[in-house]
UniProtKB/TrEMBL annotation:
Database matches in PANTHER family: ACETYLTRANSFERASE (PTHR43877:SF1), AMINOALKYLPHOSPHONATE N-ACETYLTRANSFERASE-RELATED-RELATED (PTHR43877)
Protein's recorded name: Acetyltransferase (GNAT) family protein
Organism: Falsiroseomonas stagni DSM 19981
Pfam families the UniProt entry points to: Acetyltransf_1 (PF00583)
SUPFAM superfamilies given in the database record: Acyl-CoA N-acyltransferases (Nat)
Amino acid sequence: MTSRYGLEIRAATAADAPGLAELLTEAGQASAGRVIATRLEALRQGPGTVLIAQEWGPPSGVIALHWYPSLLEDRPVAQVTLLLVGQDSRRRGIGRLLVKAAAQAARSAGCGALEMALAEAGAAMQGFCAATGFAESGARFTRSLRRQS
């Protein structure tokens, strides 16, 4: 999709699953490569995309987004549900490039807005969101659909 200084931004494939598993494990979200491959395939079938940033070796970063129709908007809304850049690759503009590529993919899908739905938004993430054009827009609450033991 995009290439800059040896960095390629492209759609993730099942072949990227082991590298994505490493990246997620580094962030405290351990999953087996085969599980990630299955999830990537399911996401590929739905309304959305997963993009990776890759220089050499495993992915340096990943962004996942989904789009959906809304009663509040004329056009579908794209929602970023995962944005992760590896510890050694941070502060180099990779997150910004991933957001730019995600916005481009959302526009191509006919979306009118891009929102960030991240579980925890510390001060650094809030600063990143502001620097990449996002505006704060209310609180987010979640509820598990599984029985609590």
